[in-house]
Write a structure and sequence with these properties.
NH2Glyco/OHUrea_AB-resist_kin, Putative phosphotransferase, Kinase-like_dom_sf, Phosphorylase Kinase, domain 1, Aminoglycoside 3'-phosphotransferase, Chain: A, domain 2, transferase, five-stranded antiparallel sheet, three-stranded antiparallel sheet, alpha+beta, phosphotransferase activity, alcohol group as acceptor
Length: 302
């Protein structure tokens, strides 16, 4: 069976990864077919609303068990996804059944892909999300393969400084300077190192059968909990921005999340600003001005 990549995947990989992405997309149908055969899998259908740089195929194993074949581009953020899932062993995260890390291929337990925490009202979703995230924060183990927050954000610093000088970022320069200062202070005073999800938001927590909610799609790092929680602070940002008193609402959300998981609110505020500004300037660099403006405005609220 020849399965073609969905339009969404083709669009994002082409836009984000350029020529390397186009070459990967050209090989993708053959790669998927090879793993279906090699691992004794029967394809049911491609999940069109799947990953932004990965193809998701709903499959059954040779004994009829429903599963998911995930074939993704390997980059700095995704290279250790399999290692994080193995470390968690299905505890509050999707269970890894089989992997070929060098090729970015994983066989995963099947969850309810159409039911994420976004299906819940925000207060309930935030409560469930905080519980899942806390259970993921485990010691990474001696000799772990994961990049640290200090290393990862250190690589972002020169990119952020270079983009700061571009014409598109002229109005954002004061925010960039504040974000860089936040990052320097935070990495210089960090005192904990746990395994982090790295990309934790409501859309990356799906309903399961073993447990009510399970995390998917980690971009694992090792560092302090406030870094991981920062992504959750800005979840459902468009909805947050549309409501009256959005600035005060954002600050209340930050305070509630910090209190719920016993994280220093000032450290959470700093990482929330840094991550929002970095993402906002990246969005400017790829011409996504709507997202950029929203992210940078959010950073000013904090």
């Amino acid at each position: 069976m020849v399965l073609e990549p969905p339009e969404r995947l083709t669009r994002t990989v082409t836009a984000w990864e350029g020529e390397a992405g186009r070459r990967w997309l050209a090989r993708l149908p053959e790669t998927v077919a090879g793993y279906l055969d090699r691992w004794g899998l029967t394809a049911e259908r491609v999940f069109a609303a799947g990953g932004q740089i990965s193809m998701i195929v709903l499959v059954r194993t040779d004994d009829g068990t429903p599963a998911v074949l995930k074939v993704g581009m390997v980059n700095r953020e995704t290279a250790q996804e399999h290692a994080a899932l193995a470390c968690w062993g299905g505890h509050s995260a999707v269970r890894l059944l089989r992997a070929d890390p060098e090729q970015g291929v994983m066989l995963l337990e099947r969850l309810h892909a159409d039911v994420s925490l976004r299906s819940l009202a925000e207060p309930k979703a935030m409560l469930e999300a905080a519980g899942v995230l806390q259970r993921l924060w485990v010691p990474p183990g001696a000799g772990h393969p994961f990049t640290t927050v200090e290393e990862y954000t250190g690589e972002l610093v020169p990119l952020l400084r270079e983009r700061r000088e571009r014409a598109y970022a002229q109005d954002a320069r004061p925010l960039v300077d504040e974000a860089l200062a936040d990052r320097e202070h935070l990495v210089g005073t960090a005192s904990e190192a746990v395994l982090l999800h790295g990309d934790f938001h409501h859309g990356n927590v799906l309903a399961g059968d073993r447990l009510p909610w399970l995390a998917i799609d980690p971009k694992p790092l090792v560092g302090e909990r406030a870094y991981d929680l920062a992504w959750l602070v800005r979840d459902r940002l468009a909805t947050l921005a549309a409501q009256p008193g959005s600035r005060a609402a954002a600050r209340r959300r930050l305070a509630k999340l910090a209190d719920a998981v016993e994280v220093d609110p000032e450290r959470l505020r700093g990482w929330s600003r840094f991550r929002a500004v970095e993402a906002g300037v990246w969005s400017l660099s790829v011409g996504d001005t709507a997202d950029a403006e929203l992210l940078l405005e959010f950073a000013t609220w904090l």
